[in-house]
Amino acid sequence: MGRAPAGTAMSRGEGLGGTQACGGRRRAGTGDRRVARQLRRGSRLWAGEEAMGAKRPRRSQVPEGAESRKDVGDSASLQRLPPELLDHIVSFLPVRAMVALGQTCRYLRQVCDSEGVWRRLCRRLCPQLPPEGTAGVRPWKRAAILNYTKGLYFQTLGGRRRYLSKSVAPLLSHGYRKFLPTKEHVFILDHGGTLFALRHALVASVPGHAQWRRACRYVVLCRGAKDFATDPRSETAYRKYIYVLVAREAGAGRPCDCVEVYLPAGGQRVFRMTFHAAMRFRQLALTGPEAERSLLLLTEEGKLYSLMVDETQLDEPRSYTVQLALRKVSRCLPQLGVQALASGPSSAGFLTGTAPRPRPAPRLAPRPCPAAPQPCPLPDQGAVYLEVHAPGVYRDLFGTLHAFDPLDLQTPLALALPAKVVSCALGYNHLGLVDEFGRLFMQGSNRYGQLGTGDKIDRGEPTQVRGLLCPLDVWCGLNHSLALLRDGELGQAVLGCGCGAGGRLPGWPKGSATFVKLQVKVPLCANSICATRECLYLLSSYDPEGGPAYRQLPPSQAPPPPAGSPGAQTCEQYLGQLQGCATLAGRLAKVKEAVGALPLPPCQKAFLWEALKLIGRSARPRSPPTCS
Hints:
Layout lengths: L17 H25 L24 H9 L7 H8 L4 H8 L3 H7 L2 H11 L13 H11 L1 E6 L8 E2 L11 E4 L3 E5 L5 E12 L2 E14 L2 E5 L12 E8 L5 E8 L6 E6 L6 E7 L5 E7 L4 E6 L15 E2 L1 H5 L5 E6 L3 E6 L31 E5 L2 H8 L14 E3 L5 E6 L3 E6 L3 E6 L14 E11 L3 E4 L3 E6 L7 E6 L13 E6 L8 E6 L3 E6 L26 H13 L4 H14 L4 H17 L10
Antiparallel strand pairs: 1-2, 1-28, 3-4, 4-5, 5-6, 7-8, 8-9, 9-10, 11-12, 12-13, 13-14, 15-16, 16-17, 17-18, 19-20, 20-21, 21-22, 23-24, 24-25, 25-26, 27-28
């Protein structure tokens, strides 16, 4: 009488007898039947009330072999609720709990993935979101995920404290699409076309070091924005104006595109350019110095236009007409459809469309069209064309001034790559390209090791970076480069190479000639990266219908292993240098540098660096205990 049957789980602990446990289970079962009876009476839309009227058998009447089957039936009692009531209950769960619930069984997955549940959840997360602000195949699910994962994170550079802070998230924003930092603000564009200005509070500032507090307030700069840009230089002191491409209504209610110029400090509009209603733009970029600023405008048809702006005269209240001219890349190659723009201080890159095409026979890279009017061949989709406006930058990028024409700075130069290019990042004198297979190619000056190739030799053509695949975002600065990885052997991490002065590479003050893992905490859904002299910024906003989708590299295009690997020569060189080190700290530093120079996978490099760090900590001399 005092023992429980074999295989029976006690509900009150081991000290209770079998009769008490069964009695407690009878009372619990009576309460469940009473709740189920009330739900059946209140629901008129659910069929099958007669089937639920049968009483459950008592535990004493159930054989021992049927205990497990009854427990399984009790655990699946959610399936007996009306679908409308279950959808209403699930919509009140947090996003993480709802996703975890959808992974339990197929029925609950269908319930948690329904558009009605995501609509209620989106209304709870972002009640101010208008219905027309959603778009896509699954609009409400996309809107809920965008608003749940949105966030702007920043980490100060140059100090000992390395912590990741999160700025204030505007309640009216619909996810995050693009951001640009200035000296005192961070501008964020959401998927609904609203441009926000987040102001940071500066706690203390000394030469070479700044301490920031989380963003204290934000304002809405403008609505209906398509894109925005500022000075392409990485130094925030030069970013004095914000150019915003917006859609406005002209006379007689006709929509037209405008470019409005704002002051970052106060948010005042100082200049406005209105275009013809027949011209529809989708992206803009800036390049060149302040007095001769080139504003590049990309139309929806893939044509590229430009106009000259003198920023030194924008504060003067006057009205004048500017000439909008077709760029040479669209004049010389009329069949070329530009898909995206990328700009630097003295250069501009153009990516063509990435429409699928049949695989042709091996061919040579397309050459830039000469100045004379000659018929140009149809370029392939996914190609990259580059404009260089300064002789020094041209020499750093291509290693020569042979083809540089100072009288014709708009000549498009084609870059030869083995596959289509999906993204491009331009720095001052180097660039990064990512192809459709997720491979990273670097080109330009390598004085500080900012190309990540393991040496400091300049590259006059795109060179693949071994060991780094499928980056989520690539950013090129003045003399260092950053790459954001989400899925890979390192997990979520920020990799960097180049000059490490001023804390540019957290954890690597002396810099590195290869991409190394930085001491930065990466948010869960980070998808964009940017850096200034003071801070490193990470934008988090996961779009289930966007993002780079890389293809699998065919085995036929996989590069063969090199015949003579430079690893043996590098080991011999560093081994000779190790023998000259007199202290243990010097030897550990030299081994750490050798690990970064060797052609090892990123996971092995990260393991060796962490191991060397632990060895260095354990080898520190400890102070002797004090004698009483």
